[in-house]
Amino acid sequence: METPLVIGVIEGEVPTPLGLARAAARHPDLSVRALVLDQPFAEPLAGVIVDIPLGQRAELLARAAARWPVPMLIEAPVANDMVNDDIVVANPLRYALHTRRLLDELAQADDPLETFFAAWRFRPQTTADHALPQLLDFLQALSPGPDELGRISAMERSEPSVLTVTLRYASDVLGSIEVGSHLPESFPSESELVVECFCHASAYSCVPGNQAVQFYGRSHGAVDWQPDPADAMVAAFAAWLDGGARPPGGIADDLKTLRLVDRIRQALQMGGVLDVQVMEAVR
User: Fold this and answer.
1) Which of 1, 14, 51, 225 has its CA 20 to 30 A from that of 109?
2) Least confident span in 30-34, 124-128, 196-200, 234-238
3) What is the predicted pLDDT for the residue at 283?
4) Which residues contact residue 119 at a Cβ distance below 8 angstroms, ignoring those fewer than 6 apart?
């Protein structure tokens, strides 16, 4: 029997919704050790998993990387500009069964993408600061990169919060995005993600709401039956530490996505439209 990989885990006081630490504890080939930044830890580590809320990630990741110079896994986004190829900034949308299958299907199809639509909607009072950067990062995997953008159009409403974005690429691909907390309180799940891609001769519709067990009692709810994305993320990280391929996602990719988020905010400030090519020429 092979010796389990010793993995350090840094957790916040409140468990994150994704639950990378819980997934690490479930992995059969990992021996998990709890880490505290200000306390010594002498045992050699194969890697570190950072599982903390979004607002604390950048500062804590920098401190952890300085203390333990080993490969690290953290959820995207991070908003840290350090240069470190050993840090995997993982997007759950690239690991969930339905969204990963969509990427695989589009990669295998010899049919150019023409338009896409993506909507990630949440129930009111749900914290969704992660949604726009995670969705943009996922969409960059199936559409032209942000460097090919020609124009960004955006509109936003505060109550309930809704952000709509139109991306027009130099290749004439047109994308539409909607992110907001405008699902009804009675909606069976906390959020709903819909992604539709229209190619020259085919169309793809990814509606993960169909992959759930719904229940009725004192309240109406839904529980996904598909594999937990956190388990897939930890498994890919462990396989890399054991000599396998590096999982997708890094600091550079994260920064590229966050720059696109900044461009969308610029478009809102400039009356809803940002001509990216003109802005880059001015710079």
Assistant:
1) 225
2) 124-128
3) 43
4) 177, 178, 179, 192, 193, 194
For 180, phi then psi, to 5°, come to -175, 165
Question: In this model, does residue 278 exceed pLDDT 50?
Answer: no
Structure tokens at 227: 């594999």
CB 165, CB 152: distance < 8 Å: yes
Q: Using N-to-C axis directions, what is the helix angle for 131-140 and 251-269, rounded to 10°?
A: 110
Q: How confident is the model at residue 180 (pLDDT cuts 50, 70, 90)?
A: very high
Three-state SS for 218?
A: coil
CB half-sphere exposure, 151, CA atoms < 13 A: 9
Kindly indicate the confidence band of residue 279, based on its pLDDT and cuts at 50, 70 and 90: very low
Q: What is the residue-wise DSSP string for 10-41?
A: EE-SS--SS-HHHHHHH-TTEEEEE--TTS--
> Helical H runs in the chain?
20-26, 57-67, 97-108, 131-140, 229-241, 251-269, 276-282
Q: Is the pLDDT of residue 212 over 80?
A: no
Q: Are 93 and 137 in contact (CB under 8 A)?
A: yes
Spell out the domains of the chain, with CATH numbers in brackets: 5-90+229-259 (3.40.50.2300), 94-227 (3.30.360.10)
Q: What is the average pLDDT score of the chain? A: 88
| Of 204, 229, 216, nearest in space to 73 by CA | 229
Q: Give the DSSP H or E segment for 1.
A: none
